[in-house]
């Protein structure tokens, strides 16, 4: 067995741990307090974390032996990438594993918004029988605007297309030709806003995308648009979204992420046309297993010096 030591700061599905234990000593310390993480990080060659732990510049400086950080999932907002680069610590993630789960969640959210399913369920459980109040819309023939045509966007195109939706796509990093190869109509962001009946966002949070869906964007959209967001909450200006919902410019929104989590009972969360879920779009049994296996193999590849599929730094 190699002498590499790997810290699991947020746990990992057993299938991933079994891959790691074939070559490494693995310490599963799920729920590790931040102060203790800082105290023990110097012992490890690699650390794998989920969304609960944070690797600050201070923690990374203490990781004298660290060669690789693995994020079990997609987002790396909880890792100081600049600090990792300065210390020549590789950062890898597992972006493909949860794509089917997120695409299916998004399609479910579109259907739920179109037919007001959560509110209809709540009223009947409250002893009411309100049929006329829940006049819905069909998604067949409607236009779905997908912002971000990566793993999730590509899968969502297939699912939505199978149900008769027209899919228009925009990606700030992909050209029109690349988007068209996915069978999606490539459009500008302005055009997507003007024509889409439903909009789903699948881009990472960067300086350029922060507040992407704000007041100006909502004003450009077709009146009565419905929005789904499963990516970092700060992509959406929550105050502007609430205003757009109250004015009717936006007919409904399904939000799985928020600027602050948990968000509490804000005006946005409480709005009757908002479906709010607690960051569960990636939470399926299958996605958890795939993510664990993918990140385990990627971290081992980094330790061995093998080619990497998903290196970020």
Search tags:
313 residues; alpha/beta; Rossmann fold; 2 domains; seven-stranded parallel beta sheet; five-stranded parallel beta sheet; 16% strand
Using DSSP, what is the number of strands?
12
What is the CATH C-level name of the largest domain?
Alpha Beta
Q: Major sheet: size, sense and barrel closure?
A: 7 strands, parallel
Q: Number of domains in the coordinates?
A: 2
Structural class: alpha/beta
Q: What's the order of the H and E elements?
A: EHEHEHEHEHHEHEHEHEHEHEHEH
Q: Could you explain the architecture of this structure?
A:
With 313 residues, the chain is α/β, with parallel strands linked by helices. It folds into two domains: 5-97 and 286-304, Rossmann fold (3-Layer(aba) Sandwich), CATH 3.40.50.720; 99-276, Rossmann fold (3-Layer(aba) Sandwich), CATH 3.40.50. Helices cover 38% and strands 16% of the residues. It contains 13 helices and twelve strands. Strands 8-7-6-9-10-11-12 form a seven-stranded parallel sheet, with helices on both faces. A five-stranded parallel sheet has the order 2-1-3-4-5. Helix 11 (238-247) links the parallel strand 10 (225-229) and strand 11 (250-255). Helix 1 runs parallel beside helix 13 (285-304) and helix 5 packs across helix 7 (151-162). The radius of gyration is 21 Å and the shape is elongated. The two termini are 27 Å apart. The mean pLDDT is 95.
